[in-house]
Amino acid sequence: MAGPNLFLSKSDLAYAELRDRILAGTLPAGSRLAQYDLAESLNMSITPLREAIRRLSSEGLVTVETHRDVRVSVMNSNEARQLFEVRLSLDPTAAELAAQRRTDDDIATMQAAVDKLLPVTRQWGEEALTAHRAFHRALYRASHNDVLIRLLDDLWDKSDRYRRLGLELPPGDEPRTRDLQEHHQLVSLIVDGRAAEAAQLMRGHITHSLTATAISALEDREGIRVT
């Protein structure tokens, strides 16, 4: 997380810290937030912490049941599918724009990121997820569309909880060599300026992602049958 000096207020600091912990799973879904303990650990009063909680509640990351009872929102198939559906639209658009607008610096950043990729499997865990996120961010930043970049940053943040769930499922042990190959193919298509092909490959890539695996598992858990 960025240093405290970059934040405008203690509320901003509390918001960023709690959001990071929720998305990383350090504060698990369904867990109760011990507000006074958290405020003490962050070296602040309860007021800025509660302001941060209100922001997190507006994003759907926490549920405020009473003034004192605040819990990390549970993960559910409806949210996972909504995130997935929007990514299925925006990620291919970003790949297409990247193929049209990439600079030499963008290409160098993408190539450096793809060289650091690891299989996104249970074996590699957080290290692989971090490298995977860095690669996709390098790609969609090459779109040079600031609105799209902000939207995808937020979508990727909120999807991280579902990716971690995907790693816990049986497919989390698979080598996922297809993913690695597709990442290299995406870079090649973008470097070559083949925009439509990059968008098509990205759409298939998202369709077979860990988030898609997590959606199926959650729907089974919730007894939902999608036809």
Please supply descriptive tags for the structure shown above.
mainly alpha; two-stranded antiparallel ribbon; globular; 3% strand; 227 residues; single chain; 2 strands
Protein architecture, described:
It contains ten helices and two strands, in the order αααββααααααα. The chain is mainly alpha-helical and 227 residues long. A hairpin with a 5-residue loop joins β1 and β2 (70-72). The model has no long low-confidence stretch (mean pLDDT 87). α2 crosses α3 (46-58). It has helices at residues 10-24, 35-41, 46-58, 77-101, 104-115, 125-141, 146-168, 177-191, 195-207, 210-221; strands at 62-64, 70-72. The protein has a two-stranded antiparallel ribbon with strand order 1-2. The protein is 67% helix and 3% strand. Pfam families: FCD (PF07729), GntR (PF00392). Keywords: DNA-binding, Transcription, Transcription regulation.
Mean pLDDT across residues: 87
Query: What would you report as the Rg, rounded to the nearest angstrom?
Result: 19 Å
Number of helices: 10
Helix residue percentage: 55-70%
End-to-end Cα distance: 42 Å
**Global morphology:** globular
Strand adjacency order, main sheet: 1-2
The low-confidence parts are none
The sequence of SSEs as H and E is: HHHEEHHHHHHH
Strand content: under 5%
Content-based structural category: mainly alpha
Main sheet, how many strands, which sense, barrel? 2 strands, antiparallel
The tally of beta strands, per DSSP, is 2
